[in-house]
Design goal:
Elements: H1 5-15, H2 18-23, E1 30-33, E2 38-41, H3 57-70, H4 76-91, H5 102-111, H6 117-129, H7 135-140, H8 143-149, H9 156-174, H10 178-182, H11 186-193, H12 201-211, H13 221-229, H14 239-249, H15 254-270, H16 292-297
Antiparallel strand pairs: 1-2
Helix pairs in contact: 1-3, 3-4, 4-14, 4-15, 5-6, 5-12, 8-9, 11-12, 13-15
The structure holds iron/sulfur cluster.
């Protein structure tokens, strides 16, 4: 019999949280796993729908999801939904990517290469103050003036050229119109974006997903590290392989892709840095393939 990942997680989690049973006064504990939330009810008399507000007891269930699933799931793809659930419960809706317009998101995607978001924010603020978050006005700005405004983001001369290369491409191909650009077929647009100097796969996909609302998964260093540490991808897996893992096992859904990427980045920053802090991490229960060797290797 084929069981969907959600069903696998539900069965696994139910069988692996005896501690919750013991703590509940009634004999029955129920775990309902849905795409967006988990609820645990003590008795069958509880309402069927999940509570509207967040229930802190849910955090206690997080480790059991991965633990339970590991008994049943056998492919990396089957872990992706439960993994998302655990992170989503822990971090909540992250509302990524900040930006008042698609062009601002694109500028942010280019400026964030090799630097922190805090440094990008300073640069964006300065560009905004000069009303330069507009393709035409940005293009007319002298290189040295632009470089000074984005200095906080590092590699400011290189990034000045990258911003201008993008705007030049936008003007040449789409008369400067982002609406026209994003009306293109996703994969054709991705291919042409990758020809723009300084735009690699992660930047192109960030632009497509967060500025263009196109259903494409963004793979970054944190995603690679987390998957690799859990044994869901090998060390040499390419960008396309990891992207395909997500895109073939998850629904083609823009909000889901946005939130999932944001959750992985948050996990990486909070727990899964060079030295992992597995204790307390919402993915601590997904330890089927987690071992000292994989932790040390990344
Ligand atoms: S910190 Fe540990 S449990 Fe958390 S994602 Fe990294 S390797 Fe996994």
């Amino acid at each position: 019999m084929y069981l969907k990942p959600m069903e696998l997680a539900l069965i696994g989690a139910q069988e692996s949280f005896p501690a919750m049973h013991a703590r509940c006064s009634s004999a029955q504990a129920k775990l309902a796993l849905t795409c967006s939330r988990i609820t645990c009810t003590k008795t069958t008399r509880h309402p069927r729908s999940a509570p509207k507000s967040f229930d802190p007891r849910l955090l206690k269930l997080i480790p059991y999801i991965g633990e339970g699933l590991s008994m049943y799931a056998c492919t990396a793809g089957q872990y992706l939904f439960p993994l998302y659930e655990s992170l989503n419960i822990y971090f909540g809706d992250l509302h990524w990517w900040p930006g008042d317009s698609p062009f601002e998101v694109i500028v942010g995607a280019i400026l964030t290469q090799n630097t922190t978001w805090h440094n990008v924010e300073i640069a964006i603020k300065k560009l905004k103050a000069k009303e330069l978050l507009h393709p035409g006005r940005l293009m007319e700005t002298e290189d040295d003036v632009l470089a000074e405004l984005i200095r906080s983001s590092g590699y400011y001369n290189v990034k000045t050229r990258r911003l201008k290369s993008f705007v030049q491409y936008l003007c040449d191909e789409y008369d400067g119109s982002l609406d026209r650009m994003f009306a293109e077929d996703l994969w054709h647009l991705r291919e042409t974006l990758l020809r723009v100097k300084g735009i690699g796969e992660e930047t192109a996909d960030s632009i497509l997903l967060y500025a263009g609302e196109k259903p494409v998964f963004v793979v970054d260093a944190y995603t690679r590290r987390i998957l690799q540490r859990h044994g869901f991808s090998c060390k040499d897996a390419g960008y396309g392989e990891i992207q395909a893992l997500f895109m073939t096992n998850l629904p083609n859904n823009v909000p889901l892709y946005k939130q999932y990427h944001a959750l992985l980045v948050n996990t990486g920053k909070t727990f899964c840095n060079k030295t992992p802090r597995c204790e307390g991490c919402p993915l601590g229960g997904f330890n089927a393939c987690l071992n000292e060797r994989s932790l040390a290797a990344v």
